Amino acid sequence: MNLRAELLRLVPDERRVSDGDSMLDQHASDLSYHPPHRPDAVVFPESTGEVAAVVAWANKRRVPIVPFGAGTSLEGHVIPLAGGISLDLTRLNRLIDVRPADLDATVQAGVTRSELDAAAGPYGLFFPVDPGADATLGGMAATNASGTTTVRFGGMRAHVLALEVVLADGRVVHTGSRAVKTSAGYNLTHLFLGSEGTLGVITELTLRLHPIPEHVVAARAAFPSVEAACRGAAALIAAGVPVTRCELVDATTIGALNAYKRTTFPVQPYLFVELGAGGGGLAGDLETAHELLVDEGATAFESESDPTARSRLWDARHNVLHASLALAPGAKAMITDVAVPVSELAAAVEGARAELDASGLLGGIVAHAGDGNFHVAFLLDPDDAESVARAARLNEALVDDALARGGTCTGEHGIGVGKLAYLEREHGDLVPLMRGIKQLLDPNGILNPGKAVP
User: What is the pLDDT at residue 280?
Assistant: First the structure.
């Protein structure tokens, strides 16, 4: 079968169907350490109708389909393990409508979060889910992404009102509505969120927006240890301080940031904190935060309300992965993604630091400390089996510890291909139900095979 010729019958544009080496390589991997694997062809649909036509054809021919957005996933989600078609949705990039009176917007799946923010900004609104990368909103929904602002606003599941989804047989369905609440049947919107392209291809989303806070202040607090910083974060949350972000960065990572971004932070653990308010209560919240963090051992506390200074601080936080990789040029990162109850975070991070030191691996720890989600980035040579195995053993130990503390193997990155065994460990009783749902919606197994469900 000449796959490209067949696909050109469905998407009749030579520029939008490719089997060239460079294009296949671009769609063979994500930002993770998982080995790349090329698709057999890449297709760039420009409408839901084209997506439906390609998926329906692939279903009849038993050809795997892997949806692709910005390629910034961290668990191998977009790697075409079985070859087939990489369905690149970046040309579904129409921002359909922004409705400020209803605090919502409808976009196609290839629109990025920064593009939505740019469109919402003139109305005094913004989209708060911030995973760091400028990911596509369809990809963020497919992985139930979250990030630095989750502690205040929640992740993607809290912000998706409705979806348009192409099912494995090419049918197009619409879930949810623009109403802010509904009791109409099973919540299929949430079923597709976090399904990693294994149940359907998301082509359109209706999303909640929020007013931009009138007053915002960012603060950084230095601590003698990561455990003290975690206790400080837990104190803020327990006291009800309305933090918008509360991020831990350990000393190793601060040193990497200084080298990568030419910042001059003293090399010790930090909490980066942001507070936002619409009225005049911010000064009191900032003072409360200062007092609580000093009580937990903060040795320095500085705050910034200037937008440029705040932007520099969060730019540093968002460059953590690239800064860490720069410590070992050519290395890849295995990034853990466990989450625990906030009260357990200090002990979990302390244990992780001890495990990391004992392993001999180079790496740092960062955390969305306000919601108990932390990442250990192990730098490794993906071609060195011993290096990968050592990191995998450490990852497994951290997952076991998190589960024992009432936590989860993945707070935000998803299962992909890297956490399949951990899902069975965490939800062994539910995996048969998940398999049944997969079989019902994708009986021929064409949608992103090998991901999400063991």
Answer: 63
Residue 58 confidence (pLDDT) above 80: yes
* Cβ–Cβ < 8 Å for 86, 42: yes
CA distances from 133 to 129, 215, 330 (A): 11, 25, 20
Structure tokens at 180: 């802010």
Task: Report the chain's mean pLDDT, rounded to a whole number.
Answer: 94
Residue by residue, DSSP assigns 44-56 as ---SHHHHHHHHH
Give which of 138, 202, 199 is closest to 164, Cα–Cα: 202
For residue 114, the SS3 value is: helix
Q: How many residues does the chain have?
A: 454
Residue found by looking up tokens 């050519």 in the block: 330
**Under 8 Å between Cβ of 221 and 270:** yes
| Helix or strand (DSSP H, E) at 272 | strand 270-277
Measured between alpha carbons, how far is 76 from 32 in angstroms, rounded to an integer? Answer: 6
| DSSP secondary structure, 398-431, as one string | HHHHHHHTT-BSBSSS--TTTTHHHHHHHHTTTH
What is the distance between the alpha carbons of residues 322 and 210, in angstroms, rounded to a whole number? 30
The residue that leads in pLDDT, 88 or 318, is 88
Residue found under tokens 């911030």? 130
Q: Which DSSP string corresponds to 355-386? A: HHHHHT-EEEEEEETTTTEEEEEEEE-TT-HH
- How far from chain centre, in Å, is Cα 17? 28
Segment among 223-232, 355-364, 424-433 with least mean pLDDT: 355-364
Q: Report the Cα 52 to chain-centroid distance in Å.
A: 26
Picking from 226, 372, 228, 366, the residue whose alpha carbon sits closest to that of residue 295 is 228
Helical packing angle, 345-359 and 385-404, nearest 10°: 160
Residue 446 CA to residue 306 CA, distance in Å, equals 50
Which range has the worst mean pLDDT, 88-92, 160-164, 358-362, 367-371? 358-362
Question: What are 124's two structure tokens?
Answer: 């005094």
Q: How confident is the model at residue 332 (pLDDT cuts 50, 70, 90)?
A: confident
Contacts of 354 (CB under 8 A, 6+ apart): none
- DSSP letters, 230-256, are HHHHHHHHHTT--EEEEEEE-HHHHHH
Rounded to a whole number of angstroms, the CA Rg of the chain reads 22
Q: Looking at the DSSP assignment, which residues form a beta bridge with residue 280? A: none
Nearest alpha-carbon partner for 180 in 204, 199, 207: 207
Determine contact, residues 256/364, Cβ cutoff 8 Å.
yes
Q: Bridge-partner residues for 274, per DSSP?
A: 218, 245
In terms of pTM, does the model score above 0.90?
Answer: yes
